[in-house]
């Protein structure tokens, strides 16, 4: 059974939306917990998304106990962890299952798992993760769809990342926490989620310095133990609601935000003529009148996030003039444009670039969420379109947005979720 979202457009939104814990931090924090050989790790602020369900299935498969005393609170006890070959179907459901590579390699010096899945955004190699594991002394074999990575012992090393990859930075950090000696990751990614993971690992007993800068140093320790951790707010969910507010809200307060994490978006929205009020932990946004076009180039943090490029494109269809979006992280991340064209957008694609001419009215139709943030861009479109927009393959949206339809309904949107046979 699949589900669709039916959005009746042009109902003005108003009120407050509370941002959940960061998906991209959570999907690394959960695998990181299995590095504890001494007691459970308690995490709060866990978003209600299907990626978490997939990771919990993998934890159970590895014989890790998971309790959920209250909504958003996970207690993960890896005391009886077993190093199983990860051939579980959940591995295919999300990219971040690859964090079990670094975590299991750190704990057992050996891991076997299939190729991770996740959103198709063009090629997504993991060569830098593997290069990092090899630099720590591991051998990597890939046969019949399985990675087999093992080491006699892991020994700290200096690792330069050709590209500042979020996944490779975290995965190497996970493996290196229990390696012997010092590991230095140079040209490390600087995303806030990396700092969140390093903070939790340090409270578990790791010795990591420099997370959030492009040089991270990890002094290996003998073992890690349990801790308590609260996840940072999701900057991409916050950014998505900020874009929704700029497109369709009389006034919206986006609460539980770290404004610094969404600075590049705030700056773009202001350039477009949107009214943005920034407070310590929330922002207030009103629908922009006479929106101006802007050019956007996606870049590693603190540059403009690739994950917000797709929802912002929908807003750009409402700006008067030509906007150019240049995607430098995933050069094929443009499937949403084809869906937006169905709704009336005027978008021309050329390699790694979309050119959006506005303002064009949008009209409801059937569209498909081809990936998570494509889904978000279609939700923004549905909210501003005339008539009803039906979004298929909603499971992509459910992977990463906590109760999206419920949060929007509370703001005044007319959305129904319908089961299709
Ligand atoms: N890359 C390589 N080799 C590698 C790893 C990455 O060439 O070994 C390249 C990628 O192909 C890409 C660039 O490096 O061109 C950056 O990729 P990165 O590794 O930073 O991405 P990721 O860790 O796979 C995370 C987020 C993505 C987000 C990117 C970029 C998670 C689980 N995913 O992916 O989030 O787009 O960083 O910020 O943290 C999403 O939430 O919708 C999403 C796709």
Q: How does this structure look, described?
A:
The structure is a single chain. The protein is 31% helix and 28% strand. The protein is of the alpha+beta class. The protein folds into two domains: 2-20 and 233-420, UDP-n-acetylglucosamine1-carboxyvinyl-transferase, Chain (Alpha-beta prism), CATH 3.65.10.10; 23-230, Enolpyruvate transferase domain (UDP-n-acetylglucosamine1-carboxyvinyl-transferase, Chain), CATH 3.65.10.10. The strands form six sheets. It has a four-stranded mixed sheet, covered by helices on one side. Helix 5 links the parallel strand 9 and strand 10. Helix 1 packs parallel to helix 6 (192-203), helix 7 (235-248) packs parallel to helix 9 (306-316) and helix 7 (235-248) runs parallel beside helix 11.
In short:
By secondary structure, the chain is an alpha+beta fold. The chain is built from 13 helices and 23 strands.
Name the features.
single chain, 421 residues, alpha+beta, UDP-n-acetylglucosamine1-carboxyvinyl-transferase, Chain, 2 domains, four-stranded mixed sheet, 23 strands, globular, binds uridine-diphosphate-2(N-acetylglucosaminyl) butyric acid
């Amino acid at each position: 059974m699949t589900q669709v979202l039916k959005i009746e457009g042009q109902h003005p939104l108003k009120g407050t939306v509370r941002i959940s814990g960061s998906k991209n931090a959570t999907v690394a924090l959960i695998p990181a917990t299995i590095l504890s050989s001494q007691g459970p790790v308690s995490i709060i602020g866990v978003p209600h998304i299907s990626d978490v369900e997939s990771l919990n299935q993998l934890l159970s498969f590895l014989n890790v106990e998971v309790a959920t005393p209250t909504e958003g609170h996970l207690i993960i006890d890896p005391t009886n962890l077993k190093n199983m070959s990860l051939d579980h179907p959940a591995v295919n459901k999300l990219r971040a299952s690859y964090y079990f590579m670094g975590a299991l390699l750190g704990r057992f010096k050996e891991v076997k798992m299939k190729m991770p899945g996740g959103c198709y955004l063009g090629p997504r190699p993991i060569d830098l993760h593997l290069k990092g594991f090899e630099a720590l002394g591991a051998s990597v074999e890939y046969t019949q769809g399985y990675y087999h990575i093992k080491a006699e012992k892991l020994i700290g090393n200096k690792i330069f990342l050709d590209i500042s990859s979020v996944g490779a930075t975290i995965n190497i950090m996970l493996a290196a926490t229990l390696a012997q000696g010092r590991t230095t990751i140079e040209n490390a990614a600087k995303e806030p989620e990396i700092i969140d993971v390093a903070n939790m690992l340090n409270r578990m007993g790791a010795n990591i310095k420099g997370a959030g800068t492009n040089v991270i140093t990890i002094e290996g320790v003998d073992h890690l133990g349990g801790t308590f951790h609260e996840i940072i707010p999701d900057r991409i969910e916050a950014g998505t609601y900020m874009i929704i507010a700029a497109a369709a809200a009389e006034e919206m307060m986006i609460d539980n935000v770290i404004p610094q994490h969404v600075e590049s978006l705030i700056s773009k929205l202001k350039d477009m003529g949107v009214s943005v009020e920034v407070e310590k932990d929330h922002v207030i946004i009103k629908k922009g009148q006479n929106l101006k076009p802007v050019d956007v180039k996606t870049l590693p943090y603190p540059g403009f996030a690739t994950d917000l490029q797709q929802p912002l494109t929908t807003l750009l269809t409402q700006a008067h003039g030509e906007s150019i979006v240049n995607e430098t992280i995933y050069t094929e991340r443009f499937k949403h444009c084809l869906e937006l064209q169905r709704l009336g957008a005027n978008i021309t694609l050329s390699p790694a670039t979309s050119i959006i001419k506005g303002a064009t009215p949008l009209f409801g139709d059937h569209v498909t969420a081809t990936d998570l943030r494509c889904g978000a861009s279609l939700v923004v479109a549905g909210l501003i379109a005339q008539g009803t927009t039906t979004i298929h393959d909603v499971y992509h949206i459910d992977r990463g947005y906590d109760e999206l339809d419920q949060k929007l309904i509370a703001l005044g949107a007319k959305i129904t979720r319908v089961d299709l046979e």
